[in-house]
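Support case: D-MYO-inositol-1-phosphate complex. Customer-provided input:
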Amino acid sequence: MIKTALMNVMTAAVRKAARGMIRDFGEVENLQVSRKGPADFVSNADKRAERTLQRELEKARPGYGFILEEGGEIKGTDPQHRWIIDPLDGTTNFLHSIPLFAISVGLERDGEIVAGIVYNPVSDELFTAERGKGAYLNDRRLRVAARRSLEDCVVTLGIPHLGRGDHEAWLTTQRTLMARTQGIRRTGTAALDLAWVAAGRFDGFVETGLSAWDIAAGLILVKEAGGYVTDTRNRDLSLKSGEVVAANPEVHNELIKSLSGRV
Ligand code: IPD
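Agent response - structure generated as follows:
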């Protein structure tokens, strides 16, 4: 566990937002049977969590800016720092009572992510990383998996769905990876995909069309756990591009080659 003032601030804000989220998740289960479904309720739960995070972080670090999934960009008086926040990554899972979602908070300093938290409130797994200080799952130091060949790997992919993404390109990617890996998974939360790569549970993660708040915290987790994170053409990851290939260094290279820019 990283014991810096910054991590204490971030952890406290995330845990506070998580308490409300867990209560709301309990309610969502009851709403599945209503005709209207839980969509409005979930959208409000998302906004409530975001307000809690914003309020707590603003109190502890006045002047920092924000990029919020729900609230958009809020410029701070401090031009160096901004929080990049997804209060509920895995919204579709949450909406369907699937207990796999996360709160994701990254801190950017002078254009670079320097700290990140991904928290799964259901499993109480807190993934934290700070630049130069390593990545942790609760109190345990994280390292990416050591597998060296794609043939031994389990990879997680974002899969396009109704109204989103290039379905044909993804079918090509999946066909390639199906034939070369031990298995493909789809969690429905990019923040946890990255956290689980950092934890060595997944060997690799590939997705395009993501937003900055889906990946800001997760990318520093992977880097601090010894992994590589780039776009699909092996360029430095830009939060704007929304393309992510994350893995340990050997497998990352193989993943990039096997995709050959097709996703
Ligand atoms: C989504 C999740 C999902 C990914 C989608 C994202 P949200 O974020 O990260 O895994 O496939 O592209 O939009 O909407 O649940 O915050």
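The pocket of D-MYO-inositol-1-phosphate is lined by residues 69, 86, 89-91, 158, 188-190, 207, 209-210, 214 (CB under 6 Å).

Case will auto-close in a few days if no follow-up is received.
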